[in-house]
Amino acid sequence: MSTAIATVALVVAALLTAACVVLLLQIRSLRARAVALDAKVAALVPAPPLPPELAATFGSGQRRLLAVEILNPIELATAKSSAAKLLGAVRPALLTKVVYDQAAKQVVDQLESEGVLADVRVHAAR
Question: pTM (2 decimals)?
Answer without folding.
Answer: 0.51
